[in-house]
Design brief:
Strand content: 25-35%
CATH class of the largest domain: Alpha Beta
Distance between the termini: 23 Å
Largest sheet: 6 strands, mixed
Structural class: alpha/beta
Length: 287
């Protein structure tokens, strides 16, 4: 690849990539939208801060919803990124949980189909983020578009995410995981452990208490060590993220920058509600 060939990255806001990392690697963001009644906010952390989102969530009589950005909004972000690049790769959360992927594909066709690659991450939150990190490192090594996409695909296989919802009510409202919610029926003490992998939303494990759910997730992560990266995820519940971190203190990555804690995007918070906790990991490569 020519030294002057410029490749830029774009992601959507539900990838939960930390702002400092986006700044470091020049990554633009296509916002998912959060809707409270007739009010619609881009999930950019500015128009609707975490504090304001959870205040509204607690006060609102009408449940909030999320919506994909319009093709016009996505096209504007892609066009701006492409103005300083020869090729743009857009990393988007799984189409099984959001219509954002299809919107961005449409926008890419409108802007420049041959110069924009829309990549299906097959997952959400920092399980997408770790794929973007792998792509950034590949770009730093001088990889071309094909090499970057291969690095991301490899990370996709090594990335996993688990979530323990604080309440089933928000999942019921969202309607995207009705099969999971119905599978636990009315057993109020059951805590489903939700995963999103290769476009499949599932709940293969359940626990009777939050403590057991945390221990179950920690054990699944421990079985996948050594880790290249781990993000402890929560919805306005940092104490729960710290509890999970404490359970895994002995298997955290050697590089402290590869262990992060995030209050996830409002777009994800809409569907999980406050008091949820989870983790997204990247297993170490054996290559």
């Amino acid at each position: 690849m020519s030294a002057t060939y410029r490749i830029k990255f774009v992601c959507d806001s539900a990838a939960d990539l930390p702002a400092a990392w986006r700044s470091r690697w020049g990554i633009s963001v296509i916002p998912v939208f959060v809707n409270f009644g007739d009010e619609s906010f881009p999930d950019d952390g500015v128009s609707l801060t975490h504090e304001e989102f959870y205040r509204r969530l607690d006060d609102s009589k009408v449940p909030p919803t999320t919506s994909a950005p319009s093709a016009g909004v996505a096209a504007d972000v892609l066009r701006e990124a492409l103005s300083g690049a020869d090729h743009v790769i857009a990393f988007i959360i799984s189409p099984s949980v959001s219509s954002t992927y299809n919107t961005v594909r449409l926008a890419a066709q409108q802007v420049s189909a041959e110069r924009i690659t829309v990549y299906d991450s097959g997952t959400l939150s920092m399980a997408v983020g770790w794929q973007i990190v792998a792509a950034c490192r590949a770009r730093e090594r001088g990889a071309d578009v094909a090499g970057i996409l291969q690095a991301a695909a490899d990370a996709r296989e090594r990335a996993d995410v688990w979530a323990i919802p604080g309440s089933l009510e928000y999942l019921r409202r969202g309607g995207r995981v009705n099969r999971i919610v119905s599978s636990v029926g009315t057993l109020l003490q059951i805590k489903p452990i939700i995963t999103v992998k290769n476009g499949v939303v599932d709940s293969k494990q359940r626990a009777r208490t939050l403590k057991k759910a945390l221990e179950s997730v920690a054990e699944m992560i421990r079985q996948r060590a050594p880790l290249e990266g781990i993000a402890f995820l929560h919805t306005n519940a940092p104490d729960l993220a710290e509890q999970m971190r404490a359970l895994l203190a002995d298997v955290l990555p050697s590089d402290p920058e590869r262990t992060i804690t995030l209050n996830v995007s409002a777009a994800i918070g809409v569907h999980f509600g406050p008091g949820s906790v989870g983790a997204a990991i990247l297993r170490a490569s054996h290559a």
